Amino acid sequence: MHTPVLLNEVLEYLNPQPNQNLIDATVGDGGHARAILENIAPNGKLIAVDRDVDSIVRARSNLKEFENRVIFVNDSFGNISKIMEKSGFNRIAGILFDFGMSTSQLENSGRGFSFQKDEILDMRYNAEIPITAEDILNDYGEGELFEIFKKLGEEPKSKIIVRAIVNARKKKRIRTTKELVEIIEKVLRRRGKLHPTTLIFQALRIEVNQELAEIEKALADIPKVLPSGGRAAFISFHSLEDRLIKNWARDLSKKNIIKILSKKPLTASAEELKANPKSRSAKLRAFSKI
User: Fold this and answer.
1) 22 φ, ψ to 5°?
2) Is 79 helix (H, G, I), strand (E, B) or coil?
3) How many CA atoms lie within 13 A of 185 on its CB side?
4) Cα–Cα nearest to 35, from 52, 14, 55
5) For residue 101, what pLDDT is reported?
6) What span, in angstroms and rounded, lies between the C-alpha atoms of 31 and 76?
7) What is the span of the domain harbouring residue 57?
8) Which helix H or strand E contains 10, and what residues bound it?
9) CATH number, residue 162
10) Which of 209, 230, 253 is the last residue of a domain?
11) Are residues 81 and 130 part of one domain?
12) Domain of residue 276, CATH code
């Protein structure tokens, strides 16, 4: 089972209590959900949401002993208000968002999320999403690609990479992660620990799944779905996500709609970093509804 990041911090700031109802808006493999369900026993229920149907299948299996207290929903966290309406929950004590990818998605999905495997360039969390990473790489204009890599990947060498991609696709369609990695590695060297393709893969994944737009939708819904005293916790993994949450929180706290519980984002302890190096870029911010 995968190791959930910042688990102790999530439990401290969400503070789930016996018989409360909560939402895990990005259930993944169910690591955070398991701990929440243990804390809200004996009668508390959890709505477990994920866009990726494979994640729902894994979470259902991993949480089978709690099945009478979990409602699994295969949908985007951006639809959190509708999800809550359909579930019949009229009150929740808290909601968790973990924007990281699970190890299973990276290693076993076959959808091209990792530059370390040779797979098709898909990158969709859900098969209903109309555009794949392959479509973007081969069909978008040079200017569009530059904007995606610059804005969503914050890749300083975007222009060089785009030029290499455009030249390569004139000869043949780019279809696999290996082909894309080879194109980028020809024009870009490794920078420290960062592989030259890391930020490009990030940008493509965000564009394919419209991740920032989904976060914005969810943020707009939180004041509607949380009661007074209800809590929201967000785990982000790059500056684009964290900036959205930080700016949203600043605006709503000024209006006395939410209270910021964590003045600075919480990061993994030295102990957690040693046990789970993938937690190094995780940041947690937490809030309560006033």
Assistant:
1) -135, 170
2) helix
3) 9
4) 14
5) 81
6) 19
7) 7-104+211-289
8) helix 7-14
9) 1.10.150.170
10) 209
11) no
12) 3.40.50.150
